[in-house]
Amino acid sequence: MSVAKLEYIWLDGYKPIQSLRSKTKIERDFSGKLEDCSMWSFDGSSTEQAEGGSSDCLLKPVYIVKDPQRKNAYLVMCEVLNPDGTPHESNGRALIEDDDNDFWFGFEQEYFLWNPATDKPLGFPEGGYPRPQGPYYCSVGAANAYGRDIVEEHLDACLEAGLNVEGINAEVAAGQWEFQIFSKGAKEAGDQIWIARYILERIGEKYGVTINWHCKPLGKLDWNGSGMHANFSNSTLRTCGSREVYEQICESFRPYIKEHIDVYGPDNHLRLTGKHETAAIHEFKYGVSDRGASIRIPIATVERGWKGWLEDRRPNSAADPYKVAARIIKTVKTADVAVTA
Exposed, middle or buried by CB within 10 Å (0-12, 13-18, 19+), for 128? Predict the structure, then answer.
């Protein structure tokens, strides 16, 4: 009889940033298929998701991959449900209206590798600061790239798990890195980002390094913040071949600045200042190849004859990809354009 370890992963009810939680379920003769993952439960009173007098919350498995860090094991992403089977209020995945997977998402997840002993990023000397930003972006060498062992181990683990990682790179600040994940389907894109975050957190345990997801962990100092740029398309954007249609879709975002900022991660006012490759938080603008815009129209989209995707640059590194995707989809669906099959 074979024995499998299933790590059930979910998001707790903490605010303003939800944390990852997980626990292990042992299954005998497990098939490895999602449909054979049973519902489970947990103590919601310990995760800000229920009262002690009625503490059970349900875990509904929604996505499964092999666990690259344990033997005979799987990582199972779960939605949190109330005891009656309805989505819990903390369940951002349930907000996504993309049952036909018409929307494709690619998230660019930035983060800092953080030294808990100094309470600064890797590469920051104790009691001071490294050279100004500039040499660290896509860098190589011990003088510029910090924590590469962790980053490479994370990449290998994600690929071994079967996640669709499209690339990694060192970012603009010392100790700052990025990975990109793409999926044809908003829910799966969110699933994969959360599992990739989980794997990175677990690797950090091994090295005694924490992962700082905050969008501006260095405060008001002259260092870039961390984003989670959301690249998205639907059948219209992928096939329309029309600049006018693209501009109509971009304009559909203008009336909903607050609604987007509300789910684009906490403390975004520290990051969206109009500097450091960002637009100002209460403004909205878009443009071709403009990294200072709210929404960038990639040059590749234009070169393909206005067939491609858009990039919302406002979501920050701590945002919930489920809620980001849900809001983008809701806004795009308000655009008064014909859908091309």
Answer: exposed
Q: Can you give the pLDDT of all 341 residues of the chain as single tens digits?
A: 799 999 999 999 999 999 999 999 999 999 999 999 999 999 999 999 999 888 999 999 999 999 999 999 999 999 999 999 999 999 999 999 999 999 999 999 999 999 999 999 999 998 888 999 899 999 999 999 999 999 999 999 999 999 999 999 999 999 999 999 999 999 999 999 999 999 999 999 999 999 999 999 988 777 889 999 999 999 999 999 999 999 999 999 999 999 999 999 999 999 998 876 788 999 999 999 998 999 999 999 999 999 999 999 999 999 999 999 999 999 999 997 754 43
Length of the chain: 341
Q: How far apart are CA 284 and CA 68, in angstroms?
A: 42
Q: Which position has the token pair 């100094």?
A: 118
What is the C-alpha separation between 326 and 101, in angstroms, rounded? Answer: 12
Where do the structural domains in the chain lie, given as residue ranges?
A: 3-91, 104-332
Element (H, E) at 325: helix 321-332
Structural contact between residues 83 and 57, judged by C-beta atoms closer than 8 angstroms: yes
Cβ(237)–Cβ(116) under 8 Å?
no
Whole-number Å distance between alpha carbons of 75 and 297: 35
Task: Write the CA distances from 308 to 104, 142, 208, 234, 243, integer angstroms.
Answer: 11, 38, 41, 9, 11
| Structure tokens, 25 | 């379920």
CATH of 3-91, one of 3.30.930.10, 3.40.50.460, 3.10.20.70, 2.60.40.3500: 3.10.20.70
- DSSP helix/strand/coil, 57: strand
* Distance set, CA 39 to CA 76, 179, 328, 333 (Å): 11, 31, 30, 33
Say what the pTM is.
0.96
Instruction: Looking at 80-218, list the stretches that DSSP marks H as alpha helix, in order from N- to C-terminal side.
Output: 148-161, 186-207
Query: Could you tell me if 168 and 155 are in contact, meaning their C-beta atoms sit under 8 angstroms apart?
Result: yes
The fold for domain 104-332 equals Creatine Kinase; Chain A, domain 2 (3.30.590)
